[in-house]
Design a protein that fits this description.
It contains 10 helices and 8 strands. The chain is of the alpha+beta class.
Length: about 325
């Protein structure tokens, strides 16, 4: 399948039905990465609650079967829209899809992890602090060049964290192209790619999703799409402030007093994730043809992160 950079994903076809298999890539891997059992566990818990995910089928950690650990889930019929401005849609459909994305993320953040059987799915407390530490280490482990803004962020972020938020299940990579929409209707059939899910700060998870409003554009077409430069009112897409207001109304959780810090952290985190992909190109374990195109994106993401840090008071 197109898209996923971490865990190779395959379509399985039988005479009766179709399935999807995700497995760990072969070769040398970064610590804690590619934990496919965690993906299987979280979609199993959410599917039992009627949340839109692919139905889980089986998990297998016997390397004799497929070379590495893997899991199988149902194939979900529908469409994936790769560009956040949804170029082939009408304004009313865009508005409905964005409202559905907002409502689905709000629903995810409403679950009590213990009620899902996921009270041990992550530490939860001090989430942003631990994520900054984790991604600083992952960045160092895969570093291929000096980026001054990353150095500034690694030094600044730990001392300027937002206050603790309620612990919730977080997706970690929630965006339009990780969602399967119904073929004809603006409804969400399944949320995909739970590799980075854990217990943590729902406002940090929301802020990651908000990055698409100011994402630096990619000349290579790789990475995450952007709404930057588009006439959102004409397209029928809410501006970032209105989108946040809708989330606050649905959840009672409010990121607005600390949004620049949350965005600085998330752009830093994405830069570190992309650097990890660049590192896998160097190690020969990258799983996508577009992986090498990630290299030019790391510095612009770091610059964007530092600009939000400066908005929050960094100098």
């Amino acid at each position: 399948f197109k898209g996923g950079q971490s865990n190779p994903t395959y379509l399985l076809e039988t005479p009766a039905r179709r399935y999807v298999l995700r497995r760990k890539p072969p070769g040398k891997l970064l610590p804690s990465a590619h934990a496919v059992y965690r993906e299987f566990r979280v979609i199993s818990a959410l599917h039992a609650q009627g949340f839109p995910v692919a139905a889980p089928v089986i998990y297998c950690d016997d390397p004799a079967v497929a070379g590495t650990a893997f899991y199988v889930m149902d194939h979900v019929e529908g469409r994936v829209v790769w560009e956040p401005h949804m170029p082939d849609a009408e304004p009313a459909e865009r508005a409905a899809v964005y409202d559905a994305m907002n409502a689905t993320l709000a629903r995810l953040h409403s679950f009590d992890p213990a009620a899902l059987g996921l009270s041990d799915f992550g530490r939860g407390d001090n989430y942003v602090a631990r994520q900054v530490e984790r991604w600083s280490k992952q960045y160092r482990a895969s570093e291929t060049q000096h980026i001054e803004e990353m150095e500034q962020l690694i030094a600044w972020l730990p001392a300027h964290l937002p206050p603790p938020a309620p612990v919730r299940l977080v997706h970690g990579d929630y965006r339009l192209d990780n969602i399967i929409l119904a073929p004809e209707q603006p409804e969400i059939r399944a949320v995909l790619d739970w590799e980075l899910s854990t217990l943590g700060d729902p406002l940090a998870d929301l802020a990651y999703h908000l990055m698409q409003w100011t994402m630096p554009p990619s000349e290579t077409g790789a990475g995450v799409g952007t709404l930057l430069g588009h006439d959102l009112a004409r397209l029928g897409i809410p501006d970032r402030a209105a989108y946040v207001d809708a989330y606050v109304a649905r959840t009672g959780l409010d990121p607005r007093p600390h949004l620049p810090v949350y965005l600085a952290y998330n752009f830093f985190r994405l830069a570190a994730i992309f650097q990890g992909i660049v590192g896998r190109v160097r190690e020969g374990t990258a799983t996508s043809e577009n992986a090498a195109a990630m290299a030019p994106l790391v510095r612009p993401l770091a610059i964007e992160a530092w600009e939000f840090a400066c908005e929050a008071g960094a100098r």
